[in-house]
Amino acid sequence: MMVAPVETVTVLFTDLVDSTALASRVGPERAEELRVEHFRLLREAIVGANGFEVKNTGDGVMVVLPSAAAAVECAQAIQQRHELRNRHAAEELLVRVGISMGDATRSEGDVFGPPVVEAARLCAKANPGQVLLSEVTRVMVGRRGEHTFRSVGDLELKGLPEPVAACELVWASLAAATTPLPPRLQVLPLTPYVGREGIRARLSQVRQLAIDGARQVVLITGEPGIGKTRLATHVASEAHAEGATVLFGHCDEELMASYQPWVQALRDLVEHAPMEVLAQHVGEHGGELCRLVPELARRLPNVPAPRVSDRETERCLLFGAVVGLLGCAAAQGLLVVLLLDDLHWADKPSLALLKHVVAHVVQARLLLLCTYRDSDIDANHPLSALLADLRREAGVEWVALQGLAQQEVESLIAAAAGHELTGKGLELAAAVRGESDGNPFFVTEILRDLVESGGLVRGDGGRYVITAEIAELGIPCSVRDVVVQRIHRLGPDAVSALCAAAVIGREFDLELLSVVTERCEDDLLAVLESAVAGSVLRESPQGLGRFVFEHALINHTLCEDLSRTRRARLHTRIAQAIEDVAGDNIDERLSELAYHWAAAGPAASAGKAIAYARRAGERALAQLAPDEALRWFTRALKQLATGCDVSEADRCDLMILLGEAQCQTGEPAYRDTLLAAGDIASCIGDAERMAKAAIANTRGWLSNVVEVDAERVAALQAAIDAVPAGSPHRPLLLAQLAAEACVAWDFASRIRPLIDEAQQLARKDCDKHALARVLTFVSSALVVRPDLMAERMALTGELMVLADGVDDPLLGCMAAAMRFFAAVEVADIREARECAHRTWRLSERTGQPWMRWIARFVAGVIAAMGGELELAEKHASDALKIGVAIGFPDAFFFYSPQLNYLRYEQGRLEEVIDANVEMRKLAPGLSSIPARLSFYLAETGRLDEAGELLSEVTQAGFGSLNHDYLRLYALAYWGLTAARLGERSVIAEIYDLLYPYRGHLIYPVPIALSSAHTILGHLAGALGRFDDAEGHFAAATTVHERIGAPLFEARNQLCWAQMLLSRNADADTPRALAMLHRARDTATELGGVAIVRDTTHLIDAIETH
């Protein structure tokens, strides 16, 4: 027996004070919410200090930290986070902490030794909010960190023979965040907010829920001008006045940069957040946020570069970083309010990030205020899908704004006038309400129009006077009418300038407008100032010389009044002007240039429109916004279809880029797009582009487990034939081809040369990342050859080392998965569990859907091997849901073997037989399905049907079975069927085929069945070779006990007992009876109904005999 080594560890314990009384006081539901919040605060501090949570102690945790200094930092962060949270909470969460260090041992994930006992007793001794640590720990902290300690003397601790010298950590409270109100929210209308008291009262309640730690989302919708932004701004401003951090991002029509509202909001947060918040964020997420907010690296020194992986993983890391920063900011302050305005114009990446934040930030002081026009979205709008998803989320409030009521319109007009309404004023309010339906923007525009036209004048006493009868005032009957009237009163010079500005966008700058209109800036400024005075424009807080239309309706109206030809000419001049003024910042304005050149029409250069659309798409890909990239590449290809004179090489490039974007967004069409790109490249004889198209056309391993993708194989082969021998693409092309064709081509003559050349070339290049990718595909190809397990184990071991060295989460997850598949097959359970844990950690860290599928899939295998059938089914079902959601074509074919195994052990075979019949039709190339179906038919008494299936395969010969990853699985089931039917020649043939793999588990990747020894023992017993059977069953027991597979062993005991009863030698029956009882007891405990049924039947037969 091995003795665990002794090591020096630092141990920290926490405990929530008076948790029982708290639960009694608030009730079980609220107590659970508080418990989740408490553990979130604990784990944020633990992760920030690089601690390892050993176990949950009920109301606290036991943590091991890398040093005494790290433990003190962790304890301080725990107390500070809870104190900050308690400032505005109805129920306080008070924590005590104990720390000690010394020699200890580790065993099966736990830690044992004196420092564990000391830390636990110090924690129990501490007062609420206090941190006690041993004097030895304080000495080891030394001068690392600016900490203050106070001696508490020698403490008598329960269970310890001698007093322990201890001290107290004196920690200071954190300062609340002081982020200023975003500039766009600082410019408020002159009139106070009136009306909608009920809605405002409800939103105050929602804000309090967010302050209490439950993330809230408010979706404010309504027609243009109804007051969505004004209401959201009012709520945000009130929260800011009470100490909240307020962030703001808005969406622009057409001119959106990728993630624009998030960039705006997070840039403000990074600029003003306390340094400790940013430092903690970088400690947890590295430099991932720099992809969106490069200012982080300028504010904080030594920020690491974002990790390099596939685009989907990089995007998940970015999303995780956004969630982390918002969560960290919310933990440090009263409340974080994030206002996202005009979501009906949001790009898909921004909406995807919003969905991610809502789903992953549940317990945090975060309030999301989102505005959108419901009139501008239909079923195909990307926002529609998000809104449907949000209806399933907790903490989401929907506010549909209607027009102001009559009394509210009166209050609005009175506030604008500065005095109460009487007589004619009330009549005017009624008339205005009738024409405007209470739309606040329409109401104020009518009032401005009446003032400008002389219908309303301010009298000597300061009160407004109506100069004519209400019916004679000419109140406009539409918003458009009133906007047109007001703008035309500014004069033709103003109208001309404002029309050009409107085509630029809702926000524009004086310099650009000057170039477009060919007017001097001073003259133009006078015109714009008159528009500001007339409340058509306002100066933008984003910088000097920038202006913004008061409402989107105004610049829409101006654009609509222009002829199509005039608009196109203006777009051309704007695009040319941006090129002139952009200088070195042209990359920042690619979206604008692509938009304006595309809108310029055929009179402009279509080549420029395509070039800028491509550059905008490439920038979107680099910014992890594949949906936005997809839009630009699609637009470029549409323009190509109009007959633009662009080379076939450029068309091929656009197709490759489009395919990459489709692949990253989960669109299955990426396959056909990239095949088409490869065809174009082949036609023009461009080997480089052929290689790029073929390499991009993969999901990172075998593309289809059901059948060989002949077109992908052909594209890879064509690219290999085309590229020169020294091409850097050649190793990966060879490895991908081996993985794609491994189930169809002869291994020795065709797959082995591909594998060997790929590895030889990749090792020569000395590029670790490229070699790791090659080895991933090679490992995938070797799955079909269980006889090469030693080679596969060596390669996957090397792959794990390489993956550790390149810091690519997806590559790390794929390496762990490949190693897991090999480790399970050779029954190396310790390695398999470590790989499973690694896939889970990486998937949780990134949130990447493909990695989450892998993690849950392998977790299901581990749970099934451990006899945890319910847990295995949960993991398998979770994996299926994720796979379906991301369009994974084989999701059901991986789920099906897991479900079939579970139903078999649960005694519910009848539920899956029909599904197997259908699957056989869908995937005739999978040898495992008829094999499994034949056994299930035999098990349920349908022996004739089972025999027909067996006869089909025996006539073709077992050599006809595909050499795929399911071959051993299929042979095992055919053998069990033959044994049930008494087909001795078939049993003998399968025994010989399986015997070389007797040391393996029967593991076809989706699910493990048992040690091959169990199947071989069963077959040997059916042949009357009882001594051989005994040896196999005994060997299986050794394997099953070593890997901790109790249900596998229960079935092994059942088969062994059946063999003993068949042999019926001296003492066989008592031995068999003992085995049957052991098997039944185990199966009863684990829910193995089928084994319980079969063992009970045999026990009853023996005992009654």
From TrEMBL:
It comes from the Bacteria. Coiled coil: none annotated. GO terms for biological process: cyclic nucleotide biosynthetic process; intracellular signal transduction. Signal peptide: none annotated. The keyword Cytoplasm does not apply. Keywords: ATP-binding, Nucleotide-binding. One of its GO terms (cellular component) is cytoplasm. This is Uncharacterized protein. It comes from Mycobacterium lacus.
